[in-house]
Amino acid sequence: ITTRAVRDGDDYVINGAKMWITNSIYGHIIAVLVKTDPGTEPRHKGMSLLLVEKGDGISVSKLDKLGYRGIDTGSLVFEDCRVPADNLIGGEEGKGLQQILAGMELGRINVAARGVGIAQACLDESLAYAQVRKTFGKPICEHQAIQIKLADMATAVEAARLLVEKAARVYDSGERADMEAGMAKLFASEVALKNSLEAMRIHGAYGYSTEYNLERYYRDAPLLAIGEGTNELQRIIIARELIKRNPV
Fold first, then answer.
1. Same domain, 141 and 227
2. Is the pLDDT at 240 greater than 80, yes or no?
3. Which position among 42, 100, 147, 150 has the lowest Cβ density within 10 Å, counted as fewest Cβ atoms?
4. Catalytic residue among 93, 175, 228, 232, which?
5. Quick check: is 175 catalytic?
6. Secondary structure (H, E, C), 25-67
7. Helices 104-132 and 214-224, interaxial angle, to 10°?
8. Do residues 78 and 159 share a domain?
C-alpha cells in the first residue's frame, strides 16, 4: 500500500493510485485503504480506511478485461484529493487492514458461490446439448466419452456446492471460517474452470462460438481463481489453519 492520506485540519489529503477497483466507473463512493502513518511498525498499523466520494482530485480510467464485463473495473488516481476526517471508518487510524481482512472470509464464500453457478450452468447447457446433438446416428450423450465428462462435471458441482454451504454455515455461526472459505473458494473456482473447458469440448466448434453462452463462462471463470486471493494463497491458508487446528 503506497497511497498516502495526510491529515490537514478537518480533512485528509490523499495522493496515490489504485488498480483493479470494482464499480469504480459508475460507483460514487469508494472505500480506500491508505497509509496514514507510513513510519509505524508493524507496517499494517499505519493503514486506515476512508470513504471517498468521487469528485475533485480523483481521475478514473476504465480497464478492459477478458471476462466479467457485466461489472465495471477501473484504475483510480488521487491528486490532492480532500476527504473529511469524519469519513475515517471506525473513527480511529491504524485499523484499516483489519477492517479489510474482516470481509475476506465472506468475499471468498461469495466467489465460491459464483464458481458453483458457472460450473452448474456449464453442466446444464452440456446436458441439454448432448441430448440433441447426434453423431453416428445417436445423441452424443449415449457415447461413453461424453457420459464420463458429464458424470465428472456433475459430481464436481455437487462437491463444490457442499463446500460452499459448509463455509456459509460456519461463517453464519460466528466462528472463524478462513479455512472453510478458502477450501470452498479454491475448489469451486477450479471446478468452474474445468467445467467451462469440458463444456466447450462437449459442444465442439459451437462451444467456441459466441452463439452460445459457453464462451462467456470460459472467459468469466479464470477471474474466480484470482479474485479475493489467488488459489495458491488459499492453499497456504488452508495448510496453516490445518496445522493450527490439529497440533500434535
1. yes
2. yes
3. 42
4. 228
5. no
6. CCCCEEEEEEECCCCCCCHHHHEEEEEEECCCCEEEEECCCCC
7. 160
8. no
